[in-house]
Design goal:
Order of helices and strands of chain B: EHHEHHEHHEHEHHEHHEHEH
Number of helices of chain A: 21
Number of strands of chain B: 8
Strand order of the largest sheet of chain B: 2-1-3-4
Strand content of chain A: 5-15%
Radius of gyration of chain B: 18 Å
Radius of gyration of chain A: 25 Å
CATH architecture of the largest domain in chain B: 3-Layer(aba) Sandwich
CATH topology of the largest domain in chain B: Rossmann fold
CATH superfamily of one domain in chain A: NagB/RpiA/CoA transferase-like
Strand order of the largest sheet of chain A: 1-10-7-4-2-3
Oligomer: heterodimer
Largest sheet of chain A: 6 strands, parallel
Number of helices of chain B: 13
Structural class of chain A: alpha/beta
Helix content of chain A: 40-55%
CATH architecture of one domain in chain A: 3-Layer(aba) Sandwich
Largest sheet of chain B: 4 strands, parallel
Distance between the termini of chain A: 62 Å
CATH topology of one domain in chain A: Rossmann fold
Largest interface: A-B, 66 and 65 residues
CATH class of one domain in chain A: Alpha Beta
């Protein structure tokens, strides 16, 4: 893969997009309020978050054991388990199933794991039509775009934009009314559920000791996808396994609250293998793809905690950077603060050369994370690696080395201040610096800067002593 | 007469270089409260800008120099949530294994206080007199709020001032967009975050926004001044110590 255009350039474009700005402001503000209200009336929430974090950590300690257990149990229930070390292996497994079973159309429930492996593109190339059935995903599929939020893929669109899109793509004029638009999508999708040969989902959890795959959804499409087509394929990152149903209850109590402020999502679907004899619905075949794709490499690494992530999206909603630029500017499958860590995990450190710095380290992400992932600390660790691995630009690395020398020496620090005072002279206007050259111009382009004081505090101290 | 509380001022690089008047205000304020203030020579910066950008060896070198300077201090007072956070939360991990300064780093972490916390939690001060008058609003600096878990002390102090009306800032807990090197790496994003902060400040009708961190002040005053806004941005110490022609 070649390097994408730089993050800063994409962000600058996003900042000028008035529709995006409006959509983001409305949606993230709403999500923040819903989450806050939901936890305010739920005093046991804090304790459950600690517990959830502890469960994730304990599971990672014995991840191999729980993965084998979940695989055994899924197979015992009549399902098939496929191990995929890479995104390519995961794609090939699904394409192989499509070939063998003569699949022409696949309906999909919202899944970031399938976005991660760019499954839709692969299915299309193989002559299989993928149909996204989550409303947000359906919108962006019609628009030929990528999701810009982990749980709200079309968050970047206003209802007016969606009405225009539907009117164009479905050849009928629709009002910018969410109910009308939802009804239109529902009508379009109904037929596809019945036609499809395969249903593809992700998985929010897989419970090791029962072999249960858990899907947390809101629209009912997840149930259709898992029960109507003759084959159900679930794609899951290996870190999503949890030990028991008791653990599941802990996660369910905080996941929807963190994501949308709901006590529970509208549907919590527990899938245990294919249809059994005597059952009236459910698929004939059930396949679980357990995908690594860079995850196991991080178990012993600095990004370990990122493997706790439940993909609730709460950190995106509160991130001041995400709230200004939206998900597409990140240029990766997973946007936002956690997305930077996941991108490094899945694609290597080189992929986050710019992104690792796309955070003011304000800590709002960690504060809302249902499993308390210390995202700022890991971003700092990532930045450290960028220097160590010589991925950070040479100029920057040199500059910080010099900066480090200056800050470690009072004499150089004083000298730097004296030189700065001389150099700033021609630029001071009304006690302000309004326009500076070089790197400093990156500040003064949009903000004033106070000049260096005529006498530093250190120099003034002797008057006070 | 009982022995006075002794405190060393760690003034921070931004205050030293750009805002010495904040340092002067702190010295006057603490002396008024009977604190014996000293200013150990040789201080530069806590190393946070290096640390946060990932230059940890360089940050450790700065820390190893700073720590012995304060080894004899009873209390170390820092007028910045982020620098206090660096010393309290990061120094022990950064140089804790160093035989020369490791244990000193842990001691310094315990003895270091952000200014508002020092006033309220160490000195037990809640009501102060000042000749500052007017309506103010308070911006929570991220590292003080989420790094050190402090939202109340600055509000207690401001709220206790006769003649000062404290109005709550909408989105007070949201970042101002400074973020150290972030502000120049991605100036458009940083300024866009700032614009929202400024809009919220203007909504309060306050004549002054108060913060406990020179980084936030530099960002907010930079934006306010560029927009030609009459709203001032001042450090908590400047409000508490009152009028000072500096």
């Amino acid at each position: 893969m070649t390097a994408s255009p730089r993050f800063g350039e994409r962000a600058a474009v996003a900042l000028k997009d008035a529709f995006l700005q409006e959509a983001l402001e409305i949606a993230t503000t709403k999500f923040i309020g819903l989450r806050k209200d939901s936890f305010a009336g739920f005093p046991e929430g804090e304790g459950l978050r600690d517990q959830a974090r502890a469960i994730k950590e304990a599971t990672l300690q014995k991840l191999d054991h729980y993965l084998e257990q979940v695989a055994d149990n899924v197979e015992r229930l009549g399902g098939h388990v496929h191990w995929a070390a890479t995104a390519e292996e995961a794609r090939e497994t699904i394409l192989g199933l499509c070939r063998d079973r003569g699949v022409k159309m696949a309906v999909k429930s919202k899944s970031m794991a399938t976005e991660e492996i760019e499954l839709n593109e692969a299915l299309e190339r193989a002559g299989v039509t993928p149909i996204e059935t989550d409303l947000g995903e359906y919108i962006i599929q019609l628009a030929h775009e990528k999701p810009s939020h982990i749980i709200a893929p079309a968050i970047h669109k206003t209802k007016g934009q969606v009405a225009d899109l539907f009117s164009r793509e479905l050849n009928e004029r629709f009002a910018a009314d969410p109910e009308v638009l939802t009804a239109a999508a529902r009508k379009e999708l109904r037929q596809k559920f019945l036609q499809a040969d395969m249903g593809i989902t992700g998985a929010n959890f897989a419970v090791a000791d029962t072999g249960t795959v858990v899907l947390v959804t809101n629209e009912g499409n997840g149930r259709m996808v898992t029960s109507l087509p003759r084959i159900h394929v679930a794609v899951m990152g290996i870190e999503k396994v949890i030990p028991s149903m008791t653990d599941l209850m802990v996660f369910l109590a905080i996941l929807a609250r963190s994501a949308t402020g709901q006590k529970l999502s509208v549907y919590t679907t527990l899938v245990r293998g294919p249809r059994r004899s005597g059952e009236v619905d459910g698929p004939e075949e059930f396949h679980l793809i357990l995908m690594d794709n860079g995850r196991s490499r991080q178990i012993a690494g600095a990004l370990r905690e990122a493997l706790y992530c439940l993909r609730c999206g709460a950190c995106l909603n509160v991130c001041p950077v995400y709230r200004q630029i939206g998900g597409h500017a990140y240029g990766e499958t997973y946007p936002g603060p956690i997305g930077i860590l996941l991108t490094a995990m899945l694609k290597g450190d080189r992929a986050v050369k710019d992104l690792a710095h796309a955070s003011s380290l304000c800590g709002a992400c960690q504060e809302v994370c249902p499993v308390g992932i210390d995202i700022p600390r890991m971003l700092i660790a990532l930045r450290h690696r960028l220097d160590r691995e010589r991925i950070a630009p040479l100029g920057e690395r040199l500059m910080f080395r010099i900066f480090g020398r200056v800050l470690a020496s009072p004499a150089l620090f004083r000298l730097g201040a004296a030189l700065g005072r001389l150099a700033q002279r021609p630029f001071v206007r009304d006690g302000r610096l309004r326009s500076l050259p070089l790197l400093f111009g990156r500040w003064t382009r949009s903000r004033d800067l106070p000049p260096l004081a005529r006498r530093t505090f250190s120099e003034r101290w002797k008057d006070l002593a | 007469m009982k022995n006075p509380v002794r405190a060393s001022l760690l003034v921070t690089c931004l205050v030293d270089l750009f805002y010495p008047e904040i340092g002067v205000a702190i010295v006057k304020l603490l002396r008024r409260l009977g604190v014996a203030v000293d200013f150990p020579p040789g201080q530069t910066c806590c190393g946070l800008p290096l640390f946060n950008s990932g230059y940890h060896e360089e940050a450790a070198r700065v820390a190893r120099r700073m720590i012995p300077i304060f080894s004899g201090s009873e209390h170390v007072v820092v007028p910045s949530g982020s620098c206090a956070w660096m010393i309290k939360k990061e120094y022990p991990g950064l140089v804790g294994d160093d035989p020369a300064v490791g244990s000193q780093a842990r001691t310094m972490a315990e003895r270091t206080h952000e200014l508002s916390q020092f006033l309220v939690k160490v000195l037990g001060v809640t009501r102060l007199e000042t000749d500052f008058r007017g309506r103010v609003t308070y911006h929570d600096s991220c590292h003080l709020l989420r790094g050190l878990g402090e939202s109340q002390s600055p509000r207690t102090l401001l709220g206790g001032l006769p003649g000062v009306e404290l109005v709550e800032l909408p989105g007070a807990d949201e970042c101002c967009g400074f973020g150290g090197s972030f502000s120049v790496r991605f100036p458009e994003v940083s300024t866009s975050i700032l614009d929202k902060k400024i809009a919220n400040i203007e909504k309060t009708g306050a004549g002054c926004v108060v913060a406990c961190d020179a980084g936030c002040l530099m960002q907010m005053s930079g934006g306010l001044s560029r927009k030609g806004s009459p709203v001032k941005s001042l450090h908590l110490a400047q409000i508490l110590s009152g009028s000072d022609p500096s």
